[in-house]
C-alpha cells in the first residue's frame, strides 16, 4: 500500500467526522437543513468506511459492544414502522441513532488509519472545547453587562438549554483531564519545579477554560454529574506521578472558577442542591410532575411506545394541572422518555448502554489496567473518554442529553475510541460468505441504495423547511409576490409527491386551495367545490405523517362548517363533522382555548344551552393553562354568561380574571364600560 494512502484516508475520515460534528451544533431540533447535511455527511463517511469491508466479505470486530450497537441502530430503524408519528420519528432517528451509527463507522476503520484518524479528530475536539468555552464566557459577560436577570444569566452556547450545554462541557472535560495527566506525567522534573511542558500547559489552559465555562452555566445537574464522576477520575489517575499535586491544582482551579462565575448569582449553586430548596423550587417540582405524566404516557403505550421524538406531540394530553414551568418539549429524563417513546425494549437499550460504560470503567480501572496489557499512555486517555460519556449518561437522569445531536454524535466517537483500547479482540472471518452472500457487490449496491434513499428524503425535508417554514430568504430571490406564490405552490405540489409523509406541503396546499376557493367569483360552483375537496384531502393527508396536529383538526372542522354546503352536506351533517374534528383536536391538545370555545359555541350556545356551554368552557380551567390562555378562556366564559343574561356572573368572572392577570386589558375595558353604563342599562362588551 502507498504510505500516503493511510494518511489521506485518515484525513478524509476526519474531515467527514468533524464536518458532521460542526453541522450538528445549531440543529436543536429545529433547523432541519443542518440535520440533513450532517446526516448525509455521516452516511457518506460510513459508506466510505464500509465499502472495502463489504468487498472483503464484512469481517466483523469480535466482542459484545459492536453487536450491541448494531442491534441498537437496527432497533431505532424498526421503530419508524410502528411509530404513532413516523415523520417526527424520522428526524429523531438521526439524532438518537447517531450514537450507534458513528460508533459502528469508527470501529470499522482499519487499524493503521484509525490511529491517525483519532490523532487529527482529537485536535478538532480540542478546538471545539476552546470555541465552546469562549462562546460561554462571551455570552456570560455580555449578558451581565446588559443587566440580564440572574435567573437567565446562564450561557447555553449553541444549544437551547444551559444544562445540556453543561453536559457537553463535562463530555469534553474528562478526556482532556486524563490526557493532561498523561502528558504532564512525562516530565522528569518535579511538578511545578520548572521546565513546564508546552503541550501539558496547553491542556491545563484548556481545562481552565472548560471549568470557567462549566461553572458559568450554574447547572445543578451538571455539577452533580461532575462530582459523581470525579471520584472515578481520581481512582484511575491517582497512581500517576505527582497525581496529588495535580488534583489539588485541578480542584483549586474548579474552586476559583466557581467563585468567579458564581459571583453574579450570589454563589447560590451549592445552596440550590439543598433538599429544602429542591422540594420547593418550581423547576424541580415541574420535573417531577413531568415524570409522572411521562409514566402515564408509558402506561398508555407500554409495549412499543408512542414513537421516537413524539413526546412533545403527546405531552399536552398528559400534562398535569400544576405543571406550567416547561414548554413540554422533553421530559428532562432521557430514561423515562426512552420508555415512553419506545417502550421497555427502548429503555433496555439505554440501560444496556449505561451498563457497557460501567463495564468499560471496570476494565480500565481494575488493578490499574494491568489486565489489559496496555500502557497507561493509552489506557488513561481511554478512561477519560469513558468518564466523559459516563458523566452525560448520568446527567441524562435529570435533563435531556442524548436528544442533543452533537452530544450523541460525540459520545459515539469517544466510546468507539475507548473500545479500541479496552475491548478489541480481533475480527471474525468474513460474515457474508457464511450466510451465503459470495459477491460483495450485492451488499455494496444495497448500501448505495440505502444512502441514496435516505439522502433523498433528507434533502426533501431540508427543502420543505427552507421553502415553507423559514422562507424569508426567498423574498430577496423572487421579489414579485405573485411569482413567489406560484413558485411555492408548485414546489409544495412537487414535495407532496417526493415526500408524502411530510406535513407542511399538504397544509400549505390545503390553505392555498381554500384561499382560492374564497376568491372564486364564477357563478358555477363546480370549480370551487373541487378546490374545497382538494383542500380537505390535503389536510387529511397531512395527518398521515403526524396525526397529533390539533391545528389541522381545527382547520378541518372550520372547513366543514364554512364550506360544507359545497360538499352537499346539510346543516346537521356539517355541524356534526365540524364538532367531530374539533373534539379530535381538543383530545390531542386539551389546552386549546380556541377549540374548546368553538365546540362550546356550536354544540351548546348556538342551541340555546348556555349553562351547558359555560360548564364546558369552565371545565377547561381545570386543565393546565398558562396565564394568557387562561385569561382568554375566562373572557370567553364571561362573554357566554353575558349573552345568557347572567350579567352578575359575568362580572364576577371578569373580576376573578383580573385577580389572576391584572394586565389583561380587554377585561379592564369591559368592566369600566359596565360601571360607566350601569346607570343607563346593560353594558355591551367590547
UniProtKB/TrEMBL annotation:
<protein>
    <submittedName>
        <fullName>O-antigen polymerase</fullName>
    </submittedName>
</protein>
<dbReference type="Pfam" id="PF04932">
    <property type="entry name" value="Wzy_C"/>
</dbReference>
<keyword id="KW-0472">Membrane</keyword>
<keyword id="KW-1133">Transmembrane helix</keyword>
<feature type="transmembrane region" description="Helical">
    <location>
        <begin position="165"/>
        <end position="182"/>
    </location>
</feature>
<dbReference type="InterPro" id="IPR011990">
    <property type="entry name" value="TPR-like_helical_dom_sf"/>
</dbReference>
<feature type="transmembrane region" description="Helical">
    <location>
        <begin position="194"/>
        <end position="215"/>
    </location>
</feature>
<dbReference type="GO" id="GO:0016020">
    <property type="term" value="C:membrane"/>
</dbReference>
<feature type="transmembrane region" description="Helical">
    <location>
        <begin position="90"/>
        <end position="109"/>
    </location>
</feature>
<dbReference type="InterPro" id="IPR007016">
    <property type="entry name" value="O-antigen_ligase-rel_domated"/>
</dbReference>
<feature type="transmembrane region" description="Helical">
    <location>
        <begin position="343"/>
        <end position="362"/>
    </location>
</feature>
<feature type="transmembrane region" description="Helical">
    <location>
        <begin position="32"/>
        <end position="51"/>
    </location>
</feature>
<feature type="transmembrane region" description="Helical">
    <location>
        <begin position="245"/>
        <end position="264"/>
    </location>
</feature>
<feature type="transmembrane region" description="Helical">
    <location>
        <begin position="441"/>
        <end position="468"/>
    </location>
</feature>
<keyword id="KW-0812">Transmembrane</keyword>
<feature type="domain" description="O-antigen ligase-related">
    <location>
        <begin position="206"/>
        <end position="347"/>
    </location>
</feature>
<feature type="transmembrane region" description="Helical">
    <location>
        <begin position="121"/>
        <end position="141"/>
    </location>
</feature>
<feature type="transmembrane region" description="Helical">
    <location>
        <begin position="7"/>
        <end position="26"/>
    </location>
</feature>
<feature type="transmembrane region" description="Helical">
    <location>
        <begin position="382"/>
        <end position="405"/>
    </location>
</feature>
<dbReference type="InterPro" id="IPR051533">
    <property type="entry name" value="WaaL-like"/>
</dbReference>
<feature type="transmembrane region" description="Helical">
    <location>
        <begin position="63"/>
        <end position="84"/>
    </location>
</feature>
<feature type="transmembrane region" description="Helical">
    <location>
        <begin position="221"/>
        <end position="238"/>
    </location>
</feature>
Amino acid at each position: 500500500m502507498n504510505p500516503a494512502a493511510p494518511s489521506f484516508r485518515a484525513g478524509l475520515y476526519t474531515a467527514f467526522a468533524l464536518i458532521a460534528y460542526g453541522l450538528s451544533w445549531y440543529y436543536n431540533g429545529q433547523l432541519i437543513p443542518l440535520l440533513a447535511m450532517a446526516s448525509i455527511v455521516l452516511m457518506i463517511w460510513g459508506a466510505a468506511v464500509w465499502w472495502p469491508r463489504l468487498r472483503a466479505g464484512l469481517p466483523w470486530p469480535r466482542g459484545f459492544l459492536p453487536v450491541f450497537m448494531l442491534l441498537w441502530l437496527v432497533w431505532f430503524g424498526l421503530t419508524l414502522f410502528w411509530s404513532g408519528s413516523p415523520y417526527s420519528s424520522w428526524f429523531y432517528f438521526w439524532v438518537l441513532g447517531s450514537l450507534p451509527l458513528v460508533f459502528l463507522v469508527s470501529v470499522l476503520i482499519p487499524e493503521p488509519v484509525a490511529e491517525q484518524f483519532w490523532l487529527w479528530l482529537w485536535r478538532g475536539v480540542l478546538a471545539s472545547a476552546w470555541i465552546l468555552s469562549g462562546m460561554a464566557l462571551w455570552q456570560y459577560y455580555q449578558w451581565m453587562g446588559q443587566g440580564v436577570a440572574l435567573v437567565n444569566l446562564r450561557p447555553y452556547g449553541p444549544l437551547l438549554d444551559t444544562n445540556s450545554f453543561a453536559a457537553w462541557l463535562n463530555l469534553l472535560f474528562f478526556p482532556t483531564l486524563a490526557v493532561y495527566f498523561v502528558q504532564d506525567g512525562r516530565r522528569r522534573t518535579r511538578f511545578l519545579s520548572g521546565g513546564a511542558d508546552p503541550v501539558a500547559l496547553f491542556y491545563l489552559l484548556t481545562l481552565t477554560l472548560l471549568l470557567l465555562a462549566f461553572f458559568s452555566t450554574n447547572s445543578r445537574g451538571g455539577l452533580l454529574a461532575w462530582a459523581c464522576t470525579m471520584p472515578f477520575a481520581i481512582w484511575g489517575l491517582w497512581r500517576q506521578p505527582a497525581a496529588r499535586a495535580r488534583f489539588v491544582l485541578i480542584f483549586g482551579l474548579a474552586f476559583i472558577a466557581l467563585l468567579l462565575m458564581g459571583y453574579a448569582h450570589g454563589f447560590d449553586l451549592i445552596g440550590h442542591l439543598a433538599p429544602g430548596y429542591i422540594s420547593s423550587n418550581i423547576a424541580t417540582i415541574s420535573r417531577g410532575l413531568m415524570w409522572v405524566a411521562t409514566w402515564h404516557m408509558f402506561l398508555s403505550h407500554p409495549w412499543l411506545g408512542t414513537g421516537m421524538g413524539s413526546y412533545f406531540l403527546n405531552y399536552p394530553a398528559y400534562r398535569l394541572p400544576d405543571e406550567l414551568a416547561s414548554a413540554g418539549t422533553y421530559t428532562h429524563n432521557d430514561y423515562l422518555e426512552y420508555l415512553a417513546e419506545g417502550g421497555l425494549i427502548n429503555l433496555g437499550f439505554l440501560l444496556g448502554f449505561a451498563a457497557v460504560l460501567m463495564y468499560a470503567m471496570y476494565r480500565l480501572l481494575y488493578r490499574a489496567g494491568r489486565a489489559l496489557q496496555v500502557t497507561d499512555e493509552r489506557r488513561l486517555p481511554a478512561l477519560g473518554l469513558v468518564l466523559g460519556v459516563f458523566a452525560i449518561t448520568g446527567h441524562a437522569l435529570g435533563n435531556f442529553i442524548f436528544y442533543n445531536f452533537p452530544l450523541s454524535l460525540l459520545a459515539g466517537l469517544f466510546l468507539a475510541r475507548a473500545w479500541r483500547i479496552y475491548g478489541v479482540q480481533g475480527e471474525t472471518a468474513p460474515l457474508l460468505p457464511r450466510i451465503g452472500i459470495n459477491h460483495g457487490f450485492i451488499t455494496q449496491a444495497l448500501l448505495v441504495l440505502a444512502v441514496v434513499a435516505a439522502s433523498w428524503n433528507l434533502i426533501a425535508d431540508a427543502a420543505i423547511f427552507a421553502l415553507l417554514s423559514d422562507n424569508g430568504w426567498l423574498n430577496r430571490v423572487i421579489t414579485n409576490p405573485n411569482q413567489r406564490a406560484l413558485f411555492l405552490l408548485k414546489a409544495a405540489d412537487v414535495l407532496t409527491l417526493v415526500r408524502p409523509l411530510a406535513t407542511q406541503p399538504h397544509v400549505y396546499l390545503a390553505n392555498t386551495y381554500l384561499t382560492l376557493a374564497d376568491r372564486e367569483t364564477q357563478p358555477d360552483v363546480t370549480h370551487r367545490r373541487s378546490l374545497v375537496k382538494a383542500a380537505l384531502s390535503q389536510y387529511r393527508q397531512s395527518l398521515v405523517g403526524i396525526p397529533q396536529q390539533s391545528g389541522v383538526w381545527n382547520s378541518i372542522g372550520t372547513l366543514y362548517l364554512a364550506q360544507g354546503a359545497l360538499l352537499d352536506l346539510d346543516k346537521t351533517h356539517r355541524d356534526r363533522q365540524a364538532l367531530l374534528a374539533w373534539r379530535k383536536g381538543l383530545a390531542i391538545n386539551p389546552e386549546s382555548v380556541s377549540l374548546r370555545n368553538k365546540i362550546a359555541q356550536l354544540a351548546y350556545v348556538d342551541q340555546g344551552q348556555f349553562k351547558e356551554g359555560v360548564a364546558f368552557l369552565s371545565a377547561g380551567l381545570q386543565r393546565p393553562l398558562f396565564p394568557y390562555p387562561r385569561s382568554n378562556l375566562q373572557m370567553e366564559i364571561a362573554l357566554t354568561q353575558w349573552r345568557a343574561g347572567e350579567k352578575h356572573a359575568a362580572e364576577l368572572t371578569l373580576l376573578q380574571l383580573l385577580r389572576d392577570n391584572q394586565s389583561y386589558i380587554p377585561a379592564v375595558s369591559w368592566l369600566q364600560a359596565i360601571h360607566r353604563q350601569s346607570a343607563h342599562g346593560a353594558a355591551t362588551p367590547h
